[in-house]
Amino acid sequence: MSGDGSGAGDGLAARRGADDAVVYQPAEDSGLLAEAAVAEAHGRVLEVGTGSGWVAERVAEERGLDVVGSDLNPHAARQARERGVEAVVADLLSPFRADAFDTVCFNPPYLPTDPDNEWDDWMEHALSGGESGRELIEPFLADVGRALAPDGVVLLLVSSLTGYDEVLGLVDEAGFAAEPVVEESFPFETLTVLALRRA
Amino acid sequence: MDVICCPLDKATLELDADEADDEEVLAGTLTCTECGETYPIEDGIPNLLPPDMREEAAA
């Protein structure tokens, strides 16, 4: 990776520090998604909401696959690129071609958030799934079948806080069958990574 | 990147490179061949947000 070519060193260091403050850094959920993605990914891979790019980098390094990372947050896209991930700034799947990817990974912002308590900055975008916790999961599932190749797989992280059964309902509506790949319980939530394949 | 398209109408994007190295375009513009909307590439990163979200997300 050699992305440091442009700009003065000081400017870059300052920018990197500023990016860290507004980009979701790898946590337990990232670790679980990476574990599932390394096990299940094939072909061309997209990570939606890549954040720091850590999961995308794991898949690229451990599986030797081509991975694209996309994020709404330009600071995140920049961090992902610094890790050597091909990065784009995008809203979910909107700028990706039909059948473009064999694997799509997504650790969505999933915390149910009272609209009165939304704090409207990049970290909120990275964490909040709106009132239901599913405000990003719904449009993602509605569109992912378009960008996914016929024998493709979607790896979706689901928290018990987001409503596991409700997410399974959305998966079914989108025409996919779900199979849990990894699961781990924490004091306040259980995290599951589902592999979704066309039903 | 042959995996991307216009976020508005999913049509093909045409690339204008202003600055490139051996591997990739560092700065340039992607223009939709259908609706004519343009999307910037800065520091090697295409910004493919629809225009209304691009302004909102300006950092």
TrEMBL record, chain A:
InterPro entries: Euk-Arch_PrmC-MTase, Methyltransf_25, PrmC-related, SAM-dependent_MTases_sf. SUPFAM superfamilies: S-adenosyl-L-methionine-dependent methyltransferases. Residues 45-108 form the Methyltransferase domain. The keyword Cell wall biogenesis/degradation does not apply. One of its GO terms (molecular function) is protein methyltransferase activity. One of its GO terms (cellular component) is eRF1 methyltransferase complex. GO terms for biological process: methylation. Keywords: Methyltransferase, S-adenosyl-L-methionine, Transferase. The keyword S-adenosyl-L-methionine applies. This is Methyltransferase. It comes from Halorubrum tropicale.
From TrEMBL, chain B:
It comes from Halorubrum tropicale. This is Trm112 family protein. Transmembrane segments: none annotated.
